[in-house]
Fold this sequence. Notes:
Helices cover 54% and strands 8% of the residues. By secondary structure, the protein is of the alpha/beta class. It has 3 domains: 8-178, 3-Layer(aba) Sandwich (Rossmann fold); 185-433, N-(1-d-carboxylethyl)-l-norvaline Dehydrogenase, domain 2, CATH 1.10.1040.10; 439-470, Single alpha-helices involved in coiled-coils or other helix-helix interfaces.
Amino acid sequence: MEYKDYNFGLIGLGVMGQNFILNVADSGFRAFGQDLDQEKVDALKKAGDDLEKVNASTDVKVFTQSLSTPRVIMLLVPAGKIVDTVIDGLLPHLDKGDLIIDGGNSYFEDTDRREAELKEKGIHFFGAGVSGGAEGARKGPSIMPGGDKEAYQHVKPIFEAVSAKYEGDPCVAYLGPKSAGNYVKMVHNGIEYGMMQLTSEIYDLLKKAGGLTNEELHKVYSKWNDGRLQSFLVEITAEIFAQKDEESDGDLIDKILDKAKQKGTGKWTSQNAMDLGIPIPTIDIAVSMREVSALKDERVAADKLYDRPEPLEMEKEKLISMAEEALYFSFIMAYAQGMSQLAAASKEYGYELNMATVAKIWRAGCIIRAGLLADIADAFKKDNDLKNLLLAPSFVPQVQDTISSVREIVAFAVKSGVPVPGLCNSLNYFEAYTSSHLPLNLIQAQRDNFGSHTYERKDKEGIFHTEWGK
C-alpha cells in the first residue's frame, strides 16, 4: 500500500534519525524516512507502528515521491563528503522550491558552499544544528536553524512542535542567513567541550585531594544540580558516579579508560576563534586536553620519571564549597568566551544574530542547557551588542563573589600536583580581561627591536620605531 503527501522527509535512520522522525510523527505530522540499510528502514516501520504516520524506504525515488511539495527533507548523516553524496543522489528527484536541511555537525564553510550551489538550481538549503543526543531527538532537542528565512517558514511549525520547551517556549528559532545555524551549533559544542573539561577537573580534584568516594561525589554533584549549577552536564555527572559496573564488582566510572575522543567541532571552534582574533582559552585547553589524554602510553611512562607532591590537606566541606564556586565561575567563563566568539562571527559573516535568542534556545533540550542561560539571555536582552558577559552589570556580583575561592583552589590544586588547566585558563582569562595593563608593551618593544615592527606610545598618537641599543 502506498501513501502520499508526507509532510516531512528524513534521510539517515540511525539512532538520532529514527528518534527524530518518530518525534515528528508523534507531534502530529506525517513523516517518511530513507536509508540504504533495509534493517533500519524495517526498524523504523516497526517502531512507528502506523504507516500512515511514519513510513520509510531504501529507494530515494519512492522517498521523494512520497513527500508533499515543496518538499522538506532533513539529512541526519555524518558531516563531510557523505552530505554531498546524499545531496547529489537527491537532486534528480527534486523540484525547484524544495528544501534540504543539513541536521549534522557540518563545518560552516561547507554549508555556505552547499547553499550557494543549490541556490543556482532553485533548491533551498540550510544548516540546522541539533543538540540533545538520542534522547533529545526523541523527546525534544534544541534546534539551531540558519539559511533562507522564507524557506524556514516551511519547516517552522514542525521544528517548533518537536523541539524542547522551556516554560512553554520552543527551543528553536531562525538564527540568521547562510551558515548561522551550523556556526552557532559549532560554538555550542565548543562551550560543551569547556564545560565537560571543567567538570572533570573538579571531579579529579575532589577525588585526589579531597578523598571523596564515588558515593560522596554522587551526592555532591546531585546537590549542586539543585542549586545555581543546575545543568544537564552536572546532572548526568551525578548519575555517572552512581552507576555500578555490570561486568564486574565496583563502579563503572573506575573501569573507564581515561582517553577521550572527539569529532572535530571543538577544534573548529578554536581554529575559527583564532581567525577572528577572539580569545577562548577555556575551550582551547579543553580541546588540547583530549589530545593529551590520547597519549596514554606516554603519560604512563612519564609518570614513572617524575615526582609528584602529596596533595595538601584541606577540610573536606571547605574544599567542596570552594569547588562549587570554582565550577560556577568557570562555567561563566566558558559561556562568556563562546558568546563573545558568536558576537564577533555575527559581524564578520553577516549572521545578524540575536544573542538573547541564542541563549534562550539553549535553555532546554541541548547538552549545555543550564540555569545560567536564563541570566545570559536577560543580559543580552538588555544589550544585544554586549561585547562580553563580564561587562554585564548582572554578572559582576556573581563573578566577584566567587573569584577569591577560584584563586585559592587553583593554587591548592597546583601545589597538590593535580592538573586543572581548564580552571587555570578560566582564571587567567578573567585576570587578563579585567586588567587595565598587560605586559604586552614589552612584547611590542621586542618586536620592534628584532624586526622593526614599530610600536605605539601611551603619551602621543602615531607609529614609532627605535634603533635599539644605539
